[in-house]
Design brief:
Blueprint: H1 3-6, E1 11-19, E2 22-27, E3 37-40, E4 43-54, E5 57-62, E6 74-77
Antiparallel strand pairs: 1-2, 1-6, 2-5, 3-4, 3-6, 4-5
């Protein structure tokens, strides 16, 4: 994902907690749908899937089990298709 692509994707929020594969996101921007994919612009190969909501937080799953995720990172909706 390039900086140009970020403008086409909606800002969702910031990672506040990581526990195993669980990623907790403080919702600040647009509220995503359940099962929607989110991504960190710096790591376009990493995907986080929204599982459910708990108040103003989205509880998500780190689909790649990738260790590059950390608290404070911004997440955006992912608008590209994964496969045809």
């Amino acid at each position: 994902m390039t900086p140009k692509d970020i403008n086409q994707n909606s800002f969702v929020g910031i990672i506040t907690s990581l526990r195993g594969l669980t990623v907790e996101v403080q919702l600040i921007g647009d509220r995503p749908d359940t099962k929607e994919l989110l991504t960190v612009p710096e790591y376009p190969e990493v995907f986080v899937e929204v599982n459910f909501f708990k108040g103003d937080k989205a509880i998500c799953l780190n689909l790649n089990n990738d260790t590059v995720l950390e608290c404070g990172q911004k997440l955006y909706t992912y608008t590209e298709k994964l496969a045809k």
